[in-house]
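Regression test attached.
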Amino acid sequence: MRDDVLSILPGECAVSRETLHDLLDGPVEAGRRTSLEAHLATCDECREVDDGLEAVRAGLRSLPETPFPAVALRQVWDRTVNAERERASAAPWRPRFVAAAALAASVALVALIISWSRGLPPAAVPAPGRLHAEQIEQVGREARQVLEVTAAALKRSEHAAIERVLGGEVSPAIRKIGIQWPETRSPADRRSKT
Amino acid sequence: MDREEFELAVLRHKDRVHSHAVWVLQGREDSRDVAQEALLRLWVHRSQLRPDTVGSWLLKTTHNLCIDRLRRKTVRHEVDPERLELLEDEDARGPERSLDNADLGKAIAVALATLSPRDRSVVLMREHHGMSYDEIADAVGLPLGTLKSILHRSRERLRRALVTAGVAP
């Protein structure tokens, strides 16, 4: 469109309009600027275009801004910095996860102790009321293993790891040292015996 | 950019981001959503940005969100009725009215609506927000020559609209 307009203008006017637009984009060569000023001094129409372009620029610069609504800003804070703060304050403790892990460790330890006290084979106990040093060491090792697995679970934040603490990984370790779990009876067994 | 710098950037740029969306989309509800989305994206990308580039990054993001939204929806590119009323009031007062900045601002707002959203965005980035040509070319994904051509054409169109509205000679 611009080229069409320029093409129907007298030569000097077309060059001046081009220079006027280029001036809005940045500095132009001194020679072009001098020619433009000389032309504007004699051409009312191009002077009006110059004033009009200045008006456009002034109008665009003076456009009033529309404030960002306070409700929308609050939502931005809630979804960014406030959410991060909440996460940061909750992260060190991770209450539910810690509770679950502590429970897992406690259950495993209690199970170990009960099994050991009820199920040790007589040969493993040298004297009544006293523990064989080797057995104590072994139970300690197994307890440490349970704690290590629990700690790893905490570190990885994997619920599946806790399940392993309570499930498959502990039982073989206990079997290895010859500790018997207390005999468990199903509700059906209990009913049949009573 | 850390959290504190993010907060400062949001407070500094939120109104210009929102205004840009208002001008490009010509619709307030959409504009608020776009501005909000741009600020949320700033949070996501904050680690890759420097505070001195945030302003142009936000306008680039706002521009792209506006254009995406316009592509998804059929948004009518017409003048806001409130703005039309303002223009009609101006016309009703006749040639003896005073040409102050408020008149000019209103006339420009109406004239802007005659440009395509992309051209409107380009003109505003240059003349209102003072972005460099390189920044605008990067924001809208156009070569410098095309960008200058758009700017020349849009300024000329706005000038004619101001002449028609009687606020420019």
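Expected vs. actual: identical. Residues 179-186 of chain A have pLDDT under 50 and may be disordered.
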